[in-house]
Specification:
The chain is α+β, with helices and mostly antiparallel strands and 391 residues long. It folds into three domains: 46-205, Creatine Amidinohydrolase, Chain A, domain 1, CATH 3.40.350.10; 209-312, Creatinase/methionine aminopeptidase superfamily (Creatine Amidinohydrolase, Alpha-Beta Complex), CATH 3.90.230; 314-391, no CATH class. The chain has helices spanning 46-61, 95-101, 120-126, 131-138, 150-158, 176-188, 197-205, 209-232, 239-252, 315-338, 342-359, 369-390, and strands spanning 70-73, 75-76, 82-84, 87-88, 109-110, 113-115, 144-146, 164-167, 191-194, 257-258, 263-266, 287-292, 294-296, 299-300, 303-308. Strands 2-5-6-7 form a four-stranded mixed β-sheet, covered by helices on one side. Strands 1-8-9 form a three-stranded parallel β-sheet, with helices on one face. Helix 5 (150-158) runs parallel beside helix 6 and helix 10 runs antiparallel to helix 11. The chain is globular.
Length: 391
Amino acid sequence: MSQMETPPEEKIVPQFSIPKGIVGQPTYHTHPHMIPKGHLTCGITQMEYKERRDTLVNKLIAEVDNIHKNHVIVIPAARKQYMSDKIPYVFRQNSDFFYLTGCLEPSAILSVLFVHEKDAHAELWEGPRSGCSVSTQLFSVDEARPVEGFNQYLTKMTSLSKPGILWYHNDNPANLDIHDDIRSVLRHGQIALEDPQKALHQMRVIKSPAEIELMKEACYIGSQSVNMAMACTKPGISERTVDAVLEYTCRQAGAEHAAFPPVVAGGARATHIHYVANNQLLHNDEMLLVDSGCQRWMYNSDISRTWPVSGKFSKYHRILYELVLTVQKRLIELVGEQRPPLDQLFDQMCRLLGTHLQQEGILPKNIDGNDLIGVSINYILAVARDSVCAK
């Protein structure tokens, strides 16, 4: 047999291929209505995830001081969160971990990939797991190990005589179950702690074509849900009803769930920035503020709109609505033209609002410059305060 021949007992598995059968998350084979052929998750291939991992490694070791050191990178998945003793919240993966792996399983760890091994009893309660043997092919990694062996692996990797760096985000850890293990290694090992998040988030800022398409889909679904909420709004219904319309429309169109608890605020309740009780009735003379969005494959939309409960703007509602819309359009133009820092954009917003309020005779016309910015902020806050007190 020549060196190029493969022994008959060995089976060649392509570097990028999705295993058949039921695994720990949807795949093309089990959920073809959700995931296109050749993709690990909707829109994203195994190759793209691998390229992201390779890019991060190259970024972290590229600095001159890091070249000749041993590097251990630890990116944890999120762990399950519970609303009561044994009742879990809907699981949401850690965004950084998902960006690098496409893995949706809780409590996994990316260093080599650590996942929960197959367990018939646990899977009876919680659903399928991919297990180690399948995970290497599914997530296109060189090695997958049981998550229970992470501490031993980390201790071994950080005890090498060569100077080392442990890349781990120590603030607001994604998984407290392994946080103590990592802190113990740092206390007793000869290794320095560095944070990979800056390099990773610089990567995430620049979206790939596939990511852009997912973002467009999330925005389209979110916008259609707001349109439906507008169509269903009428005097006498509750904010909670509008909330339900938003969520139903998003889920029905392919989103997993809302991106965040939506604000559905009628009248003066709209002046509370994070009003999420959504439990009042809507009245004929009120405006309704909605701030909502949806999550589609970990990409979110965030849309704010205001409309009259009655379906018709009053004269004064229309003036303020058109005024704010004009300012918003100009700010979008400025972002495209100049990309100013957020604090400058905020100042420009206040100045534009002040100018338009002057043109409508709401603010005195003898105010200009920085004074106009301050007066505009104070006016908006005063209107909000007076609206609340009036109720």
